[in-house]
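This part of the workshop introduces the protein records we will be handling. The question running through the whole workshop is how a given chain folds. To make this concrete, we reproduce a full record directly below:
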Amino acid sequence: MVAEKESLVFNRILFKLFLSSTFLKLYDAADTLFPNETIGVGQTLVSKNQVFEVGFFSPASSLFLGMWYKKTPKVVVWVANRNNPITGSGSGSGSGVVLKVSEYGNISISRRGSVIWSGNPSGVGSDPVLKLLDTGNLVVVDSTKQGYIWQSFDYPTDNWLPGIRLVDDSDGGVDTYLRSWRTSEDPSPGEFVYRIENQGLPQLVVYRQTKKMFRTGSWNGLGFSGLPLIPNASITSFSFRDERLISISRPITSSIFSRTTLEPSGLLKRYNMNARIDTWTHVQTYPRDKCDAYDNCGAYALCSTEKPQMCQCFKGFAPKSQNDWDIQDWSGGCTRTTPLNCPNGDDGFLEVKRVKYPDTLRTWLNTSMGLEECKAECLKNCSCTACANPYITNGGSGCVMWFGDLIDIREFPEANDNQSIYVRLPASELAGSSTNGEEETEEGKKSGAKKLVVIFVAASGVVILALLGGGVFFIVRRRREASKSNDEDIELKILKLETIMAATNNFSSENMIGEGGFGPVYKGSLSAEGEIAVKRLSRTSQQGVEEFKNEVILIAKLQHRNLVRLLGCCICGEERMLIYEYLQNKSLDHFVFDQNRRKLVTWTMRFDIIMGIARGLLYLHQDSRLKIIHRDLKTSNILLDKELNAKISDFGLARILGEGQSIARTRRVVGTYGYMAPEYAIYGKYSVKSDVFALGVILLEIVSGRKNRGYGQSEDGHSLLGHAWFLWRENKIWELMDKCLSNTFTESQVKRCIHVGLLCVQKFAEDRPLVSSVVFMLGNDEAIIPDPKEPGFFPEESSSFDTSVCQESSTITDVEAR
């Protein structure tokens, strides 16, 4: 048996030597690179049938590794190191630059031994080779494993080739999209992104930074409502999960070369190769015309290129500014000429045919409801402005309701004739009328509640806040599907203003223990609850009633040892207060950033705090009944009890992601500079990965005892994240550790925390781990942790930082209350 194994190994070595020899002889046509070989400037890999070529190219003054068509006119379709251009002078930027694949399957570009760019293999290989396929996919293949352990198709740049999947899968941690070049000569990441968007109904969208420029319209069962109804299913593959579009791709064919390119200008252009004349034929461009430009006509207006005036208000609406419309500035949109009669009137619907559905910024979806039932549901809610069948299959099915303004609608002259939207109008604007009734829950009927106010609409349903008799706050969530319509309620104690004033000594300054964006926080005492902390909404607070409601809705439903516990609230006139459990120690930032207190927090204490924060965040993202994005995770929002157990607090800015929803966007970016993930700060896009970024910042701050924002500029000129990355690459990571920990730290834990922290703050969301992986990696000495990529950087203002030597302290003697 041993002899057979040795023979197998020997034969494999001979085979690799034979292939290597053949590779050297036929280098110009070779499609494979072995671990003992490199590709330098001027050398290339060429796919088997001479379709694609990979090598270094040099637009302007930088060097990049790219892929282009070999025989057809040279078009670069993929760039590896677009975020890390190779620059230099003297001997040339290409001096010593090579592409290689390691014996474990990691593909990398290095320059005189220093790694400039590397791939992110899905596993560790034992017999890997790098191979360029005729499909344009550069892959790492391992003879001992099925599939690829790395492929360029998972990391497209500006070109969408057949076989590449655009993906929006938060559960799997995958977010694949196109990003334009900066200019036609600079392949660095540009301003435009083309991606799947699952906010409401699925669609494909082009963004310019945070501004939406073009969308295909929502998925209607056969295609996208803003595109001509062609049999998409025959030429495109779609993958759905719980009404969410997870991926889209075009099949690979050997008979025709095609590509879709996101140009530096933001235009999407599709090309086919005309082999007879060896040139690319332009097939399609999006946006096609002015009506494809996002929100060209404003709210409640229809865009049509077939009419003398491109923008037309819906019946029952008139231009907000007639003077603007007279000079063909339609951006202000339209407004109602007659208000709706809700809740006591007889509103109805105007059918608008052959349209691209409005953007689904705020919608409610039910896949089993018919159109008439959908209309009835819409009329029950005064915030509902329109409804439709989301799917045109089988004569129309499902129900989608819009809340708020209807924007980005265009009319089609012929196609899409089954796509009608029903716009809500008062009876006076319609020939007919329909009835409307007030919605009331069973709990409301029993308690005599008179008023129900809709305060939050999510993909998972409508959340209703009702103040009922007997001093009880009820939060009622209506389920998304009719088959799951059982309502649930939460009882939250409402305290009288006089009670809170007595408990806090009339909000005396002696009882004030802190202040944040919400307002001041006071210590108090109640006979039933004991010591309490009272957050009082300040009249000058930048956060307001919406944040107050938001925190009540979220935290009242959450129960976890690493989340602060909400005991009740107080609403009296303009007063809004939240009553929490009292925690004996201040927030985390009062310890780790204070020159004296940080000496008191040993490594064991800090590691326990790190694990507590991670477990609390895991509960929010995965283990609670709601998927909650905190959006303002930072050291000052981590409270510590008397045993220094970490508790996440301040949910005023948090958001719920609906069932099946992984990513959301907002036009109002809120949070704290220094903890914001790049995609949130720049594009307003938030997901579990944006919280993971903040967790990584906190983790590095705890280990180093230094703030990310306001961090004193080091010799390398970087922020805390940049400095940590610099030390990691220079194998000097121990220099990051707080000197106060020198007598208490555990080497493996500190290194693992820094390693995981750098993984969490990687620039691109798709590279960051999920919190479940963070918890596993932090708590498992045997966990295999991948190498981090470059973090997201933000320019910081310089400030001084005292690096005085700390004296060891084994007990906490200076404790402040909160």
Remarks:
- The two ends are 70 Å apart (CA to CA).
- Confidence is low (pLDDT under 50) at residues 1-29, 432-489, 712-716, 794-818.
